[in-house]
Amino acid sequence: MAYLLLACAIAAEVGATSLLGRTNGFTVLLPSAVVLTGYAISFFLLSIVVKTMPVGIAYAIWSGVGTLAVVGIGVTLLGQPLSLWQGLGVLLVVAGVVLINVGGPVH
User: Fold this and answer.
1) d(CA 35, CA 26)
2) Separation CA 81–CA 59 (nearest Å)
3) Labelling 72: which of 37, 87, 88, 97 has CA 20 to 30 A away?
4) Dist CA 21 CA 61 (whole Å)
5) Which of 15-24, 69-78, 95-104 has the lowest mean pLDDT?
6) What is d(CA 75, CA 56) in angstroms, rounded to the nearest whole number?
7) Does the pLDDT value for residue 35 go beyond 90?
8) Is residue 72's pLDDT more than 60?
9) For residues 90 and 100, what is the distance between their CA atoms, to the nearest angstrom?
10) Is 11 or 78 the better-scoring residue by pLDDT?
């Protein structure tokens, strides 16, 4: 259940972040309201997730998957360029999330 809620938190955050440009600095009402609502939902769900999952693991997954998704949306849907170095940086973020998750408990 925690992973499902985490996926929903990530989706809400990614949706909100993807719409940030349309807020025009939070001067356009509807996109601004959607962005703020998306972030509120995301943080609410994340707060539930960390009741049963270590906050470091939850946040690593949330931020890593969110970063990957936002970059993907930026490149594919928003026409934003991605350099080789930026792509490498995204891959390093993903690798870091994987290592945090497979690293196991610290003794």
Assistant:
1) 9
2) 27
3) 37
4) 24
5) 95-104
6) 28
7) yes
8) yes
9) 16
10) 11
